[in-house]
Amino acid sequence: MAEEPEYDAFLSYSHALDQRLAPAVQNELQSFAKPWYRRRSLRIFRDRTNLAADPGLWASIEQALRASRWFILLASPEAARSQWVAREVEFWLREKSADTLLIVLAGGELVWGGDDIDWSRTDALPEVLRGAFHAEPRWVDLSWLSDAEQVDRANPRFRECIADLAAPLRDMSKDELIGEHIQHHRRNLRTAWGAVSALAMLLVVALVATAIAVNQGNLAQERADVAMTRLLASAARENLSTRLDLGQLLAVEAYRMRPGPETSSALLEAVTATPQLVGYHPAGSEVTALSSTGDVLVAGTKSGRILRWDLAGEPRRAEDVTVAVPAPFAVEASADGTRLAATDGNATVVVEPSSGRQVRVEARRAVDQIALSADGRLLASTEDAGDIVLHDAATGAELRRAPIPWEIADPDKIAFLDDQRLMLGTVTGSAAYLALQDLRVLAEVGARSPQNRFFSAYSPNGDFFGFAANDPVVGGFVFEGMPADERTGTPPKPQRRQEFSPRTYPEVLAVAAGGSGFAVAVSGLLQVFGDRLSEGFLEVPGNSQLNRLSFSGDGRYLAGSTGDSVVLWDLDQTDRLAERIAADEPDDYSFIGKPDLAVDPGGENALVLPKLGAEHLRRVGLRDGSDEKEFAAFDAQRAIWVRSGESVLMASTDGTARLISAADPADVQATWDSPGGVDMSGSPEPALIMREVPGDRVVVVDQDGRVVVRSLPDGEVLQDLRGPWPQWLSAEGDVASAMAISPSGEHVALIDRNVLVVIDLRAARAVLVSPGGGDDVEFTPAGELLVQRSYGQVEVWNVPQGSQARTLEASDLLEDSMAVSADGRYAAGVRGDGLLVLLDLASGGRIGQFSLPQPASGITGAVGRSTTIAFTPDSRELLSLTSGGELLRWPLDPRAWAQRACAAAGRDLTPQEWRQVTGTEPPADLRCMR
Q: Between vectors from CA 424 to CA 421 and to CA 426, what angle results, nearest 5°?
């Protein structure tokens, strides 16, 4: 038995113009002639999403169209130009009937010509309606209603229009419907007035009961929300290794339901999982083919769609191309993507996406394999147990035909090696190389795989063959394709080898062009080997199954298919959140050392001092990465912004300093001598630190515990404290592990391996002494002190009370690596393995971590010890600068993480997925980007 339609009507409109009028029409239709006890008299579907922003939602639109009895078109010139309105109308005409299509004229012109719409005078209807009506269609004129805010139910003209529209939906005459509307309106008024007296009597009782119930209800709802968010966050984490797209969507829902450290942590873990992920691309139906040529990736689907990616341009966006092939098992592209080819064995088509032109290529037998030349001029194919054929791709005309060499009786691969040669290969690695000019055999290679229990593949252009065996003794090999002299049949030597456990039988294999890498999928776990990887090997989780794999031409990108989605990875990408601002200067680095990094008060520029004693200081624009200025650094040790960012103060290791105009590096505003004529102790690291504090002052602290306060801009010494401090320097030759200055300038913290000392500058004495030294200290904006102990624990101290307040989950941070955000929300530090850790200061919990990339130069594996971090003044971003590496920006707003997660998932959470995870009915709106 057929299901009853779920909606009385589907409302189609232009989102660009009618986003205000469409809801008004929907509301009036649903409330017209409505009894008081019903929620609505009609159920009208109105899409609230923007298909232009997310074409992947089309499947849900089709479902709503099928579930509707009538189609209401809000006609206007904007709707006529909308591809999505046209697509909805086209679907209705194909699946339903023009007899159930109603038109509401919202703007423009609509003229009936006698036997069809007068298209020379009509501009409000899409072209797909040309010839659809055999008689004048039903339509209502609302073009006089210029603004949705003018809607007035008491307006007789508007009420007449709504009645005209609602009558066929209710299967009633217009007069009957208006009469019923008046009766219900009067009855509703009588019912309402009768209820007023009873409600008044109950009001006092209700108010008392409500006060109690609201408190209990709020508490119950809060507990339910906490339980639900924890369930969603836990499910998100569980799915990251096998269903990464779902894990990201669940993490977004958990954060949206209850923002906080726990859900932020789950969201950050989701958006940083599988750092190489570019994104998932729902294809609408099962992916049946996947291949790449140069920088172009193409995928074929069971529904006959081809998705094309320009990997050199915008790899996150796919172009949709429809071909006259129901379910292609092979798709190919020219190097520039201007021509695509697809075949299902019976039909082979060449399409030009820019024009939509399609050329059918005739074959004598079923087609097994196809290939397009790099320039898109030639199409090669193999026919079942027969010939290899060369076609003109522009016309489909057959150019040459030759029998397939008997040694390659069942080819598994055909490819253009270059503009002169073609290759045919089998699953065992035996191959023949043919001249394009006459299809004669140039050379042949015998089988190169084991006899059984293996999986094989060729590179996209056929220049390399590889196999992976389910035997650790045999392992996996990649072979050169063409013998060096093109004549001998001597099999080439293996170029790469990787052993696999017998328990990990590979399901699919891909080989990169030039043999630069290969990848295998084992139960959805992707294992990649290649020259592009710093370790030579990479495991990429996130999927339970991968059916196909394909490398891009340069080996940077790797694509796979899983069900009805294509997933894309960037093997050069080390983190999904990091944004590159600028590169450091690799020539300055051959040792483990930290650069100096300072951000101006406006967050627009950063000072980058490459290393101790550097000859110059760079000012880098944080928005565009431009090196706007370069300052002579005169062996500078530290550089900070002062005077609201108008000046730059650079200090050397002995405490001398220069005050320079930020606008003009040649303008030296002041030169400061060593304080009191006595050099400060600024070597080795951490040398000295300085900070501008209220009152036009700068506090400078060196590694011996000397504290100097100087005035701006002249550098006059206001205070010079040299200790000795209690228990300080307990062993001869000891220096501070770290120093810190409070934002108010009231306190200075010093720590060595034996003791922590906090100095009150107003009293000129130590006010806090704590034995058991440490590695780092840092003040929060509120004046609390973070203390990193030598045994790893990070403590938070209340300085005025002289007591420890709490601890942070940061036992694995490196010494002298902590930073605190200006709003006091975050703390961050760096681990020895190159992970950047983000902490929530209020709870002390760990939110998550980012992966720092290995620098292009410098000491391998030392990224953690050669990285400096700093928060931007608005606390919305974290910056990292690595010696010989790059200046990177890391967004800290969980809403930005949610946007990245939604974009990477490429779709919305489905109601079925919500029910499976939570066991409850889903919210009305599950759009990820809502």
A: 155
607 and 617 in contact (C-beta within 8 Å)? yes
pLDDT of residue 206: 46
840 Cβ contact list (under 8 Å, min separation 6): 261, 264, 825, 826, 846, 847
- In one-letter notation, the amino acid at residue 54 is D
Taking the C-alpha atoms of residue 255 and residue 374, their distance in angstroms, rounded to an integer, is 47
d(CA 39, CA 679): 83
Find out whether 907 and 917 touch, Cβ atoms under 8 Å.
no
Contact 895, 912 (CB under 8 A): no
CA distances to 45, 145, 147, 166, 590 from 151, in Å: 20, 8, 8, 16, 73
- Quick: pLDDT tens for 233-253: 999 999 999 999 999 999 999
Q: What are phi and psi for residue 697, nearest 5 degrees? A: -125, 155
Asked if residues 328 and 291 have their Cβ atoms less than 8 Å apart, the reply is: no
Residue 333 has which token pair? 């592209």
Q: Give burial (CB, 10 Å; 0-12/13-18/19+) of 329.
A: middle
Q: Are 828 and 878 contacting, i.e. CB atoms less than 8 angstroms apart?
A: yes
Give CA–CA dist 289/299, Å, rounded: 5
pLDDT tens digits for 367-404?
Answer: 999 999 999 999 999 998 689 999 999 999 999 999 99
Which of 900, 369, 337, 309 minimizes the C-alpha distance to 566?
A: 309
Residues in the chain: 930
> Peptide bond preceding 411: is omega within 30 degrees of 0, i.e. cis?
no
- The stretches of 371-416 forming alpha helices (DSSP H) are none
DSSP output for 741-777: E-TTSSEEEEE-SSEEEEEETTTTEEEEEEES-EEEE
β-pair type (7-12, 68-75):
parallel
Contacts of 871 (CB under 8 A, 6+ apart): 599, 819, 820, 821, 822, 826, 828, 877, 878, 879, 892
Which residue, among 569, 564, 510, has the nearest Cα to 307 in the 3D structure?
564
Pairwise CA distance, residues 533 & 95, whole Å? 51
- The string of DSSP codes covering 806-836 is EEES-TTBPTT--EE-TTSSEEEEEBTTSEE
Q: How many other C-beta atoms are found inside a 10 Å radius of the C-beta of residue 414? A: 24
Structure-token pair, residue 901: 């997660």
To the nearest 5 percent, what fractions of the chain are helix, strand and coil?
Answer: 20, 35, 45
Q: What is the pLDDT, as a whole number, of residue 376?
A: 94
pTM of the model: 0.71
Average pLDDT, the chain: 84
How many contiguous H segments (helices) and E segments (strands) does the chain have?
10, 60
Q: How confident is the model at residue 799 (pLDDT cuts 50, 70, 90)?
A: very high
Task: Return the HEC string of 556-580.
Answer: CEEEEEECCEEEEEECCCCCCCCEE
Q: Where do we find the tokens 């508490």?
A: 219
Write the CA distances from 930 to 226, 269, 592, 927, integer angstroms.
Answer: 21, 21, 46, 5
430-453 pLDDT, tens digit each: 888 999 999 999 888 887 777 666
Residue 264 identity (one-letter amino acid): S
* pLDDT for the residue numbered 94: 92
Does the bond joining 5 to the residue before it have cis omega, within 30 degrees of 0? Answer: no
Give whole-number Cα distances, 870 to 354, 506, 827, 875, in Å: 47, 44, 10, 10
Q: Name the residue type at position 673.
A: D
Residue 500's CB is within 10 A of a number of other CB atoms, namely 19
- How much is the average pLDDT of 525-547? 86
Instruction: State the DSSP string of 113-142.
Output: -SSSB-TTT--SS-GGGTT--SSPPPEEE-
Predicted pLDDT at 252: 96
